[in-house]
Structure of 6-carboxyhexanoate--CoA ligase:
Amino acid sequence: MSEEGFYSVRMRASENGAHEQGGKHISGGELISTYGNLKNAVNVLLEKALTHSRGTPDFMQIQLELIDQPITKLKPLPIGINEVESVKEGHSIAQNLLEIAGVPRNCIERAFEQITENSGLRGAILFDIRSSERIDNRNDKGIRVSRMDWSTSNFDKWAVYHKITRSQRVKEALVLATKVSQHPATIAELCWSDDPEYISGYVASKKLGYHRITRLKEFGDERGCRIFFIDGLSDLHAYITYLEKQPIFVEWEEEK
Ligand code: PML
Ligand code: MG
């Protein structure tokens, strides 16, 4: 990317009113665009919201803001794929990966117990690995990680090299996981989609990379989850500011 100005472009869409009026979350998205590409960027987000299998939005907000900070470049997390036959097996692999990443077993169990009650959020929840409590105080909103992107051409090269289907969804998830895992307070992330037609998810951490798990819920289930397991958090406010405001650009280079 050149040094001209960049814009953070964000979208959120809901059905039966705005999110803050109790509407159902349909879709969210964020990207970084040059001024010249803004029309295209807005269209990408519009298309995402209008074609989502969670429903037809009757509220949508697309917002843009000039980024006034330098953009940090990060390499994508290494990727691994775990093929599983059932949700039970998927959850068991996810739990083992979380444990290897450093999340205590009792905390993992407590997080899984609470997943159902936290599944309608439009953002992520922060789970403290010491107290096994949710600590973000954002209720139904959760934390929305923002100001991040990966150029389509560089992502496409990465996908060809790794023999992975070029999917916007995988790109967005890997960008988010790369940004979140980069912060020293993040121990691991657990995510699966709230899209009823998408059953794969992942566990990610700086130590383990991005582990896709092919089945983490049943087809048709609209409940998703995104949990960041956090340790050593001296400044919760600074952590949330990093997630929401620090601009990140993912860039991959083929290993020599
Ligand atoms: C989402 O749809 O919002 C999350 C998708 C997570 C899994 C992406 C992947 O298949 O790697
Ligand atoms: Mg989604």
